[in-house]
Amino acid sequence: MKYKFLLIDDEESFLDLLSEAITDEFDCELEAISNPVEGLEIAQEQKYDLILVDYVMPQMSGKKFVESLRANPGINQKTPIVILSAYLENVEKEVKNIKDVSFFDKMYYLTNLIPYLNMILANKK
User: Mind listing the pLDDT tens digit for each residue in 71-84?
Assistant: First the structure.
């Protein structure tokens, strides 16, 4: 099965590294966006199997992105979202009441992210 992922992170180098790690492991179409406002517009127009979004970004926080996407009925309103952050404790407290959102520590993306994404996608079926 070919997946469709949306990845949003304002750090270009991390965006490139993560994009490569994901496309090496999954048969997927990956859209990598550095601007969360643009990412939100795209997420309201195209259906994704999984959305990964950084938490701390200058144009819009990951929390605001998720709240905006979940607040409007649309094609990705219930799509699983993974919030990426190096500050997980703070993030989990701030977005704990939003459905279908999980969290991943950016510091461990190379070793643990792929199995984590596999688990989320398996639970989605």
Answer: 888 899 989 999 88
